[in-house]
Backbone:
């Protein structure tokens, strides 16, 4: 009889263990909240909503929910996994207390949302200063991507409606700061909208951009150093006029719909006017060319707008649209950036696809489903999701190095946050001793040491 190989060892399972902490890697998020001042900022922001005899601080409750979501939770009740580890996460409120707070915040409405957002903006500026060369504004420019997200609903929630993809749910509009190729990104706006909200509603794009600018350090809230990128949903007269209004003067790179006039102008471009598109490493992009359109197609648009079109051979299996020409897929975008080759501008606009990575990370961090019924409650949930995504962006930016800075939430949870540890108390101090054989123990301890070197918030 041949010997079987590859079988799992037989173990016996029982309860009653002590001195073991699960999800011990979550201490990185706790230390990030402490060192960046997020815990103190939220506590101060929500002081008006703390009842005189309350045991739990509203700011701590909100941060606990955000921590649970950052570690994989998708509803309010998931704070139970923090409650089970008081040695790491401190005292955590009961489920009824958590629910009552969310109801209270939802009832208060815009005032509490404004308070939470001010706290986040204050902490964000400090985080960017602490990150130094790793900050998203290290190159002197900030890029904000605005994009819509479809969130399905499986019950009759307030404002849930049929979406443009013939599904049922909500259509929030999000804005993310791009960290570039070396990092991830962080949310700066989350606007809850009904499922039937239009993709190119100018008023919603203006509101999302306004919320996003308020989250940036003051010097980036106006001027050409801030670039707003959107897909063709933002390609409206009203939105571009708002971006370029006197006193705002923002840079933009906005997708445009291929109209009949643009299509006709593309057909008149001579072969010599097309320039080869490029890849991020500067190499020529095979089968893609760019050109700039001038003349009547710019009539009525903001002064200084440039219209750049790209033609590219479609990928195998892709179907051409009626706006394409000569077997080439056509796309177009508008920008007011000057002094940069159009191939480089087209590459910059194409990198807006990184917003899809941010949306995927948001779906994995509480945005796959809006767990509450009322629209006001779910708007509070969007703020919690953004707090969780902030922590998942700030921790790698401040504490991780190399490729780990680009890890998405799923990988962070699997490799870092899920690590178990032994809790040891000696000399009145508590230590988390991570398993020596865990492959990422050194990464966790190194990240924690880097966070410990950061100055305490003032």
Residues:
């Amino acid at each position: 009889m041949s010997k079987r190989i590859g079988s799992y060892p037989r173990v016996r399972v029982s309860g009653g263990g002590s001195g073991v902490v699960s999800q011990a890697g979550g201490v990185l998020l706790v230390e990030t909240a402490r060192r960046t001042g997020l815990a103190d900022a939220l506590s101060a922001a929500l002081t008006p909503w703390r009842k005189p005899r309350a045991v739990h601080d509203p700011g701590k409750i909100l941060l606990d929910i955000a921590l649970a979501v950052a570690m994989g939770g998708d509803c309010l009740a998931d704070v139970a996994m923090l409650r089970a580890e008081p040695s790491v996460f401190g005292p955590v409120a009961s489920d009824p207390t958590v629910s009552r707070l969310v109801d209270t915040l939802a009832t208060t409405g815009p005032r509490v949302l404004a308070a939470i957002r001010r706290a986040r903006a204050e902490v964000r500026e400090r985080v960017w200063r602490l990150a130094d060369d790793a900050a998203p504004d290290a190159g002197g420019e900030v890029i904000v991507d605005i994009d819509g997200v479809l969130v399905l609903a499986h019950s009759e929630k307030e404002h849930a409606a049929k979406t443009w993809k013939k599904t049922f749910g909500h259509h929030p509009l999000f804005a993310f700061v791009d960290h570039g190729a070396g990092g991830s990104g962080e949310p700066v706006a989350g606007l809850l909208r009904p499922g039937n909200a239009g993709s190119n509603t100018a008023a919603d794009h203006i509101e999302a951009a306004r919320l996003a600018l308020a989250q940036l350090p003051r010097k980036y809230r106006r001027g050409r150093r801030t670039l707003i990128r959107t897909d063709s949903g933002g390609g409206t007269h009203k939105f571009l006029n708002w971006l370029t209004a006197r006193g705002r003067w923002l840079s933009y790179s906005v997708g445009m719909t291929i109209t009949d006039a643009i299509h006709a102008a593309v057909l008149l471009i001579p072969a010599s006017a097309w320039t080869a598109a490029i890849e991020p490493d500067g190499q020529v992009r095979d089968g893609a060319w760019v050109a700039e359109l001038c003349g009547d197609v710019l009539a009525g648009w903001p002064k200084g707008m440039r219209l750049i079109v790209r033609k590219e051979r479609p990928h195998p299996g892709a179907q051409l649209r009626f706006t394409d020409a000569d077997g080439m897929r056509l796309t177009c975008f508008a920008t007011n950036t000057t002094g940069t080759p159009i191939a480089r501008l087209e590459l910059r606009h194409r990198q807006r696809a990184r917003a899809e990575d941010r949306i995927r990370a948001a779906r994995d961090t509480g945005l796959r489903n809006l767990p509450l019924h009322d629209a006001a409650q779910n708007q509070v949930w969007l703020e919690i999701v953004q707090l969780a995504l902030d922590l998942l962006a700030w921790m790698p930016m401040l504490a991780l190095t190399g490729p780990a800075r680009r890890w998405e939430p799923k990988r962070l949870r699997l490799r870092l946050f899920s690590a178990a540890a032994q809790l040891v108390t000696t000399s009145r101090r508590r230590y988390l001793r991570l398993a020596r054989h865990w492959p990422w123990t050194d990464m966790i301890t190194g990240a924690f040491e880097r966070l410990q070197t950061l100055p305490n918030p003032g």
Notes: The chain has a mean pLDDT of 91. The radius of gyration is 25 Å.
